[in-house]
Amino acid sequence: MIAAETLGLVLAGGLARRMGGGDKPLKLLGGRPLLDHVLARITPQVAAVALNANGDPARFAGYGLPVIADPLPDHPGPLAGILAGLEWAAEHRPDLAWLASVPGDCPFIPADFVARLHAAREAGGVPMAAASSAGQSHPPAALWPMALRGELRAALLAGERKIDRWTARFGCAEAAWPASPYDPFFNANAPEDLAEAEKILQSIGPEAIS
C-alpha cells in the first residue's frame, strides 16, 4: 500500500498574527484544537506522522509525535518545513519514500487526500502532486518524494521561497476536489474563519470529530 510508504507532515508553524498570535493549530474548533482535527484525518492515511514547528516543542508534547524545527534560520516558509520533514524521514524513517504535507489550520482534509495525490502523481508521470479545490491550488497540501530533498535544500539555500516555482522545475500534478458542500481545504486564518469552521463542523456531523 502507498500509505505504508508515506510520512504525514503537519505544518504547524506560523505566527498566527491574524488570529491574535500564538499557534494556529492549537486554536479551538468544536472544543478541540484544530490540530486534533487535522491529525484525526491524516493519521489513518499514512504510515507515520510528524509535526513541523519552531520554538519550544514542549507545547506539542501531549501529542507524542516528533516535532521537527526548520533546518534553516529566519523561518523561510513552508518549503523549509517540508525540507525538515524530508530530512527527518531520511534519518529516522528511511523506509518511507514519500511525504504528504498538510497545513495545521486545515481541519477538513479529505479522507482520500494521500491516495488521490499518489494517483495524480502516477497518472501525470511526475514526482509530485498538490491539491486544489474550486479552481484554487493549495501548494502546502502536497505530496513530495524523499529523493528530491537534496535539490530542495540547495534551492532554499539559493534563496527559493515559492513552492509553485520550485515544484515546476520537476513536475507537479494536480489533484482536484469539489468545494461543495464545503471546501475540504478550508483554512482558519482569522477568528471569523473559526466561526465559519464551526458551522461547517456542525453541518458535517459528529463523525467529523470522532
List keywords for this structure.
two-stranded antiparallel ribbon, seven-stranded mixed beta sheet, 210 residues, alpha/beta, 6 helices
Secondary-structure blueprint of this entry?
Blueprint: E1 6-11, E2 28-29, E3 32-33, H1 34-42, E4 48-52, E5 67-68, H2 78-92, E6 98-103, H3 113-124, E7 128-133, E8 136-145, H4 149-157, H5 163-168, E9 172-177, H6 191-204
Parallel strand pairs: 1-4, 1-6, 4-5, 7-9
Antiparallel strand pairs: 2-3, 6-8, 7-8
Helix pairs in contact: 2-4
Task: Give an overview in words.
- The chain is an alpha/beta fold and 210 residues long.
- The chain has helices at residues 34-42, 78-92, 113-124, 149-157, 163-168, 191-204; strands at 6-11, 28-29, 32-33, 48-52, 67-68, 98-103, 128-133, 136-145, 172-177.
- It has six helices and nine strands.
- The strands form two sheets. The chain has a seven-stranded mixed sheet, sandwiched between helices. Strands 2-3 form a two-stranded antiparallel sheet.
- Helix 2 (78-92) runs antiparallel to helix 4.
- It starts with 5 loop residues before the first strand and ends in a 6-residue tail after the last helix.
Question: Could you give a quick summary of the protein structure above?
Answer:
The chain has about 210 residues and is an alpha/beta fold. About 30% of the residues lie in helices and about 20% in strands.
